[in-house]
Automatic annotation (TrEMBL):
Keywords: Kinase, Transferase. It comes from the Bacteria. Pfam families: GHMP_kinases_C, GHMP_kinases_N. Residues 232-316 form the GHMP kinase C-terminal domain. InterPro entries: GHMP_kinase_C_dom, GHMP_kinase_N_dom, RFAP_synthase, Ribosomal_Su5_D2-typ_SF, Ribsml_uS5_D2-typ_fold_subgr. Residues 84-153 form the GHMP kinase N-terminal domain. GO terms for molecular function: ATP binding; kinase activity. The keyword Kinase applies. This is Beta-RFAP synthase.
Length: 344
C-alpha cells in the first residue's frame, strides 16, 4: 500500500513551473583559520541585476532548450537532473520525467555572482515543485553538492537580503545561517564587470585553497570584530558610510590573503584600476565578489551611483585604448529571494 501511495503521489505533476533566483555578492569570509572548529563563515548579499530563471513543463520527451543555453550549461543541467532523479526523485516513473526544461535567463558563469549554486537550486526547486515533492533548500543544496564553503547562495535563494553564515564544522555539508537582514533599498551597488576575464573556479579553486597559507588568527578575530561591532550595527542604523568602511576593511584583509592565488588583491587588473579610482574619488564600500572578476562599490543612493558610473566611464575612456574595458551596472539588493510560479 505504501508503494502504491508513493507512486500515486509521483504522478501528481504540475503542467508548468517557473523559478527565478537572484545573483549574490560574496563579500568575505569570517574565519579561514578554523582554529576553534568552524571554517569559512561568509558575508553576502542578494542583488537584483542578474537572475537565473528556469521553466519546466510537460513534454513528449525530455529536452533542454533556451536562447542562453551553451554546451557547458546543457551538460550541467543534465547532471543536476540526473542527481535529482537518482536521489529525491528515484520513485518518479520514467513517463513523468518527460519534461521540457527552458533556461530563460542565467547568471554569468565564473563572474563571482554565484551562478553554480543558483543554477542547481533553481533547477532542483523547479523539479521538486513540478513533481509535487516537498524538499527544503538546504536539503537540495546538500544533495546537489552546493554550500561546501559558503551558505550565502542557499540563504539568499530562500530569503534574499543580507546574510551571514556560521561556517562549517568538520563533516558538515551546509553552514547554519546566523543573520538575515533586509538590506536598505535606497542604497545602490555599482558593479564593475570584466566580461573578458573569469574568476578562479573548479579544480583551480580547490588547488588554491590547498596552497594558500594559514590565515592569521589575528586577522580572523579582526574580521569578526568589524563584522559584529561595525558592519551589522551600520545596517541596523542604516549608515551607508560606516557600512562601506567595514566592507572595505574586511575586503582588504581577505583580498591580501588571496593575492597569492589570484595575482593581487583583485582578480582583474582592469576592475582593480576602476575600484582604486573610485577610492580616489572618496568612495568606500569597495569589494570584489568571491574570486571575481566582478567588483562592486556601495553608495548611498541612485544619484551617487549614476554620477560614479559616469566618472568611471570617463576614467576607462582615458585609461584603456582597446575595447576590452569593464562595464558598469547599477543595482540594488534583492530582499525577497527566489520567485516560484506554477500552473496545474
Amino acid at each position: 500500500m505504501k508503494q502504491q501511495t508513493a507512486e500515486a503521489e509521483s504522478l501528481m505533476v504540475m503542467s508548468s513551473v517557473t523559478v527565478q533566483a537572484p545573483a549574490r555578492l560574496h563579500l568575505g569570509f569570517l574565519d579561514l583559520n578554523a582554529e576553534i572548529g568552524r571554517k569559512f563563515g561568509s558575508i553576502g548579499l542578494a542583488i537584483n541585476s542578474h537572475h537565473t530563471t528556469i521553466q519546466i513543463s510537460s513534454a513528449e520527451s525530455f529536452s533542454i532548450e533556451g536562447d542562453c543555453l551553451t554546451d557547458d550549461l546543457q551538460l550541467k543541467i543534465s547532471q543536476i537532473c540526473q542527481r535529482f532523479y537518482d536521489s529525491f526523485g528515484h520513485q518518479i516513473p520514467s513517463a513523468n520525467r518527460r519534461i521540457s526544461i527552458r533556461l530563460k535567463t542565467v547568471i554569468p558563469a565564473h563572474s563571482g555572482l554565484g551562478s553554480g549554486t543558483q543554477l542547481a537550486l533553481t533547477l532542483g526547486t523547479a523539479l521538486a515543485k513540478f513533481h509535487s515533492l516537498s524538499i527544503n533548500t538546504p536539503s537540495l543544496a546538500k544533495e546537489l553538492g552546493r554550500g561546501k564553503r559558503s551558505g550565502i547562495g542557499i540563504a539568499t535563494f530562500d530569503r534574499g537580503g543580507f546574510v551571514i553564515d556560521g561556517g562549517l564544522k568538520p563533516n558538515q555539508t551546509v553552514p547554519p545561517i546566523l543573520t538575515h537582514i533586509d538590506f536598505p533599498t535606497d542604497w545602490k551597488i555599482v558593479l564593475v564587470m570584466d566580461p573578458h576575464h573569469q574568476g578562479i573556479h573548479g579544480a583551480a579553486e580547490l588547488q588554491a585553497f590547498k596552497e594558500l597559507p594559514i590565515f592569521p588568527q589575528a586577522n580572523a578575530r579582526l574580521i569578526s570584530h568589524i563584522t559584529l561591532m561595525q558592519l551589522l550595527p551600520s545596517l541596523i542604523e542604516q549608515s551607508a558610510d560606516e557600512f562601506g568602511k567595514a566592507i572595505t576593511d574586511i575586503q582588504g584583509l581577505i583580498g591580501d590573503h588571496f593575492a597569492q592565488a589570484q595575482g593581487g588583491r583583485y582578480t582583474s587588473k582592469r576592475v582593480e584600476a576602476c575600484l582604486l579610482h573610485a577610492q580616489k574619488l572618496g568612495h568606500t564600500g569597495i569589494a570584489q565578489s568571491s574570486w571575481g572578476p566582478t567588483g562592486c562599490i556601495f553608495v548611498e543612493n541612485g544619484i551617487q551611483a549614476k554620477q560614479l558610473i559616469q566618472e568611471l566611464e570617463q576614467f576607462v575612456d582615458n585609461t584603456f585604448s582597446d575595447d576590452n574595458t569593464p562595464t558598469f551596472i547599477q543595482t540594488s539588493a534583492d530582499n525577497r529571494g527566489a520567485v516560484i510560479e506554477s500552473t496545474m
